[in-house]
Amino acid sequence: MEKKTEVPIPQSEAVFSLGELTSSDNFTGKVWVNIMGASDSTLHARFGNVSFEPRARTNWHSHPGGQILLITEGRGYYQALGQPARLLKQGDVVEIPRNVMHWHGAAPDSEFAHIAISLNTDDRGAAWSGPVKDEEYNNLY
Amino acid sequence: MEKKTEVPIPQSEAVFSLGELTSSDNFTGKVWVNIMGASDSTLHARFGNVSFEPRARTNWHSHPGGQILLITEGRGYYQALGQPARLLKQGDVVEIPRNVMHWHGAAPDSEFAHIAISLNTDDRGAAWSGPVKDEEYNNLY
Question: Phi then psi for B113, rounded to 5 degrees?
Fold first, then answer.
């Protein structure tokens, strides 16, 4: 019987470290978060590496100062509320405008990892809403 | 006779595209720049992928709003003026404080690539100074 690996991306291949499996209610499925910075608060930015098992995804949420996603591994989706989902692959970039409700996460058949850089933070974090329901996720494609 | 490759990182292995060989006087050696964003000016950020052949490096410069470097390939250096050079490898992160004079570039025996994210740009670009001279570069290590 094949043993299922506990991590989505072999660490020998990953560019950035996985970090810790999150227990946050802001995600569906297994998601690893590696907070990388910034320790310098005058940069007004927060950034880290986020890794998703297949089908794992953020809840709907928005960023008061906007966010950049840089896709480093696998395939996944970004969807802004009321828009079609955009398929993402390694090397792609997403500019998430300020205060736009959206989610991001892995494709059904692929791990997915991205660097996320929250901008213009001014001490305000993301505004979180509810999960992306299975009936939403299953009807993207 | 071995033919020397013209690009520092095989594109089949690179996470982000090389972009164009720059002709800017702000660098020593061959440097490729791939501007990736931001098209949304309200994010107050500019970012892209920068790839260096061995020994290639930026001039001394500073960023009014600070910058983040995310190392995606190879080995290189970051040095702030008056400080020891810091050896960097894939997966490392550098937070460059506002207005600190510094340079970054490849190690003598390795290609090097990083994502650079300039923050809090407010339409002000980097302030450029002179090249990192060979006698400075050769005495790092």
Answer: -145, 145
Interface of B with A (CB under 8 A): 14-17, 36-40, 42-45, 47, 65-66, 68, 70, 72, 90-91, 93, 95, 97-98, 115, 117, 119-120
**Which of A12-16, A29-33, A56-60, A126-130 comes out lowest in average pLDDT?**
A12-16
Query: Count of residues for chain B?
Result: 141
The structure tokens 């009807």 sit at A139
Residue A43, classed as helix, strand or coil, is helix
Q: Spell out a b/e string for B62-72, using b for 16 or more CB atoms within 10 Å of the CB, else e.
A: bbbbbbbbbbb
Partners of residue A128 on adjacent β-strands: A61
Q: For A25-126, where are the E strands, in sequence order?
A: 27-28, 31-37, 45-52, 57-58, 61-62, 67-80, 86-89, 93-96, 102-106, 112-119
DSSP B46-111: EEEEEEE-TT-EEPSEE-TT-EEEEEEEEEEEEEETTS--EEEETT-EEEE-TT--EEEEE-TTS-
DSSP assignment of A29-42: S-EEEEEEE---GG
Q: Which residue has the higher pLDDT, B123 or B38?
A: B38
- Residue ranges of the alpha helices (H) in chain A? 134-137
ipTM of the complex: 0.91
Residue B53 CB coordination number (10 Å): 21
**Both tokens assigned to B111:** 């290609």
Q: Are A66 and B43 inside 8 Å of each other by CB? A: yes
**H/E run at residue B137:** helix B134-137
Determine the average pLDDT of the residues in A99-103. Answer: 97
Go through the domains of chain A in sequence order and give each one's CATH number: 20-137 (2.60.120.10)
> What's the whole-number mean pLDDT along residues B112-133?
94
